[in-house]
Amino acid sequence: MYLSKLFIPTTKDLPTEAKIKSHQLMLRTGMIKQSSAGIYSWLPLGFKIMKKIEQIVREEQNSIGAQEMLMPTIQSSEIWKESGRYDDYGEEMLRIKDRQGREMLYGPTNEELITDVFRSSVKSYKSLPQLLYHIQWKFRDEIRPRFGVMRCKEFYMKDAYSFDLSDEDAKKSYNKMFYSYLKTFSRLNLKAIPMAADTGPIGGDLSHEFVIIAETGESDVYADKKIFEIDPNVYKFNDSSLLKMREDFTKIYAVTDEKFKKEDFNKLVKKENQIITKGIEVGHIFYFGDKYSKPMNCLIDDKSGKKTSVKMGSYGIGVSRLVGAVVEAKYNSSVMKWPKSISPFDVVIIPSISKNNKENLEKAEKIYNDLKKQNIDVLLDDVDENMSNKFKKHDLIGVPFQIIIGSKSKGNNFEFKELNSESEILSLDNIKIKLKS
Amino acid sequence: MYLSKLFIPTTKDLPTEAKIKSHQLMLRTGMIKQSSAGIYSWLPLGFKIMKKIEQIVREEQNSIGAQEMLMPTIQSSEIWKESGRYDDYGEEMLRIKDRQGREMLYGPTNEELITDVFRSSVKSYKSLPQLLYHIQWKFRDEIRPRFGVMRCKEFYMKDAYSFDLSDEDAKKSYNKMFYSYLKTFSRLNLKAIPMAADTGPIGGDLSHEFVIIAETGESDVYADKKIFEIDPNVYKFNDSSLLKMREDFTKIYAVTDEKFKKEDFNKLVKKENQIITKGIEVGHIFYFGDKYSKPMNCLIDDKSGKKTSVKMGSYGIGVSRLVGAVVEAKYNSSVMKWPKSISPFDVVIIPSISKNNKENLEKAEKIYNDLKKQNIDVLLDDVDENMSNKFKKHDLIGVPFQIIIGSKSKGNNFEFKELNSESEILSLDNIKIKLKS
């Protein structure tokens, strides 16, 4: 892609309400545009990054055997009345009347709808366990939407649901998701800490939130530093290893302000291991047994033929929120560097262009075509502006690797730079090796 | 995927309102489930097919230089008041009041919102032409939703928008989309005929709808059979060739009932060339100049520095509707055969299983693992039921190729069948070659 053709409308004058760095950066680099309070359009640059995050989330859901489907955004109020949440949910639920006066709503979450899908189709323990998920837009009518995509009204979320015959089986499903979440965040190059959490309006008695550490995070985090040392990759994908994994994590102290008690912290964590920092919630998992299946009559025949309420859990990851969270975690000292796995481009070529000399641009185009042939997704900055402005701009766009075609590039050797590192002079072959590693 | 694990809740008792074959088949094979009138959940089988269609639409948009973005589902009424359509649109628009009493709506289309994105960012002719698109859920509050996903309330649509300086340039963009649509439908193995159309609530004076021929279609189609003989692949991707392509199509008579006049048909089409059949609209493109840019003040500096309203077109493909349309076109004589490009699986292995003999199942699993290694997406029917039921079921699920492990398969040679054809005995290597061709 040539930068001059990319629809990337940058904003110079930031609105005063853009107070946190992800909100500022995403507006400044034309990743998003607000269409009304708390509602955003995703422009090509931001869209591409969000899609890459979505794809990683999808692959990690598929790899634990979850099946993808898609529920609609607009739901009938009927099922919410069955579960008892229609009145409880409050004003954050966007309530709608259709042209015939029927009460509808824009789904803030999908426990009721998936239970309705399930009860009409699965009747026997033989079809269990089941893990189903979808990635769909949700709406919460926030009274004070703020922080850009971090607390907005219309947001993109992966929510999964597990169905099991017994509590014991259900906790195996819970552990699988726990594992999948750790893998997902690690592929996004984020350090996510699972923390015991309150269950709020979803309900249940077992719940973890996954919090990534970022100085500008919304929650205070109190943890034993040992929790950062657990490597999720040592666990195998079987029930006993996954149980051990959850136990290993849960026995180490790590909470947000919600659950923080000073005396516990001091009693349970050695002074030199105490970490107090900030974090951002990016995922939340719940086990709630028959909280929905019982009132909604979602019954399964067990082995003896007796009907029993299916045991359920739900598992959310905020996909659009993660875009902002990655910026909060990775944007430091005026430089944004996207993790390789979700960068909008693999590399950007930055030629020094002057009116009377198109040689650098021609060189750049040659390299561009060469890299494209190798399936490297490359951005070419063909805009006619001075190099110092270009570098400032690319410090914000955040493509992690740059090929700079200026005075230091000679013959078939080019200046190659990884953001936040010194540049080096490399042959194109060596650059390709670096990009593909 | 093992069939016993796939979440594919089949429906035996069809609701009486399921009158057309796509609605019936999609319910029967567990592709969709209705959640409320005109609103559906897409279950794994249906979801997978829809995603494949979406991906083909995306690739063909990208290949003409359109850039993907994503606008939200919920829009403010303000921009619709600016364009003048808020009052005009009628009851099909789902109108919503948020908790603060602000008038919002669930977008039925996005001309206003994209114009708003564009006017705040692009100021100069130098940034033109631009082609932007998104694939997003839309809502139309149909008074009588029916025909399953063919006329439902919440539907998935690709809508693209073009921006140009002059009428002349805008028509070049229009022709590119025209070309892209022909390519898209041809990759879906559909014969789509472009027909001059009325513009309805979108507006403008140049418009084509793309209609695929299906006996059960909603519109009557009157055409000269010569239109079926034009091969879009002979045109090159440049302005003059694309103009010739549109002219070649438009000079041959082809209309739906909306524009049909008997005397024209008889005058313009030789008796022996007259075709009268049925069709389904799957795409619609519009050129409407400054219908939105003028009232919404979306201005561009032209070369002389004069401000002028940008010239726009819009281009829609019904992605969720296409799933149903493909069924209408391809489901005949009780056999559904998905086009290879969008089939939910490349091949299904059907072993004859009996209680005391697991040999066929073991053979099937071996082939399954072998094909998986070759990146062939394979379904294994491990359900314990008789072969005649299995064949009936797979005639509906519609995977186009079958490997049957029964009495005819011997040693390393297996019965291989393409739906609607005779089976043959082939070695596994030859089967792989067939599947990959």
What would you say this structure looks like, in words?
The structure is a homodimer of 437-residue chains. Chain A is α+β, with helices and mostly antiparallel strands. The first copy, chain A, folds into 2 domains: 316 residues, BirA Bifunctional Protein, domain 2, CATH 3.30.930; 92 residues, Anticodon-binding domain (Rossmann fold). Helix content of chain A is 31%, strand content 28%. Chain A is built from 12 helices and 23 strands. In chain A, strands 3, 7, 8, 9, 10, 11, 12, 13 and 16 form a 9-stranded mixed sheet that branches. Chain A has a 5-stranded mixed sheet with strand order 20-19-21-22-23, sandwiched between helices. In chain A, helix 6 crosses helix 7. The longest helix of chain A is centred in the middle third of the chain and has 21 residues. Chains A and B meet through strand 1, strand 2, helix 2, strand 3 and strand 4 of A and strand 1, strand 2, helix 2, strand 3 and strand 4 of B.
What kind of sheet is the major sheet of chain A? 9 strands, mixed
Output the CATH homologous superfamily of the largest domain in chain A: Bira Bifunctional Protein, Domain 2
Q: Which architecture name of the largest domain in chain A does CATH use?
A: 2-Layer Sandwich
Our count of domains of chain A comes out at 2
This entry's quaternary arrangement is homodimer
Output the structural class of chain A: alpha+beta
CATH-derived topology of the largest domain in chain A = BirA Bifunctional Protein, domain 2
Q: How many alpha or pi helices of chain A?
A: 12
Q: Specify which chain pair forms the largest interface.
A: A-B, 53 and 53 residues
Beta-strand portion of chain A reads 25-35%
Average pLDDT of chain A, rounded to a whole number, is 94
Contiguous low-pLDDT stretches of chain A (5 residues minimum) are none
Work out the helicity level of chain A. Answer: 25-40%
Radius of gyration of chain A: 25 Å
Number of strands of chain A: 23
What is the CA–CA distance across the termini of chain A? 22 Å
Report the top-level CATH class of the largest domain in chain A: Alpha Beta
Shape of chain A: globular
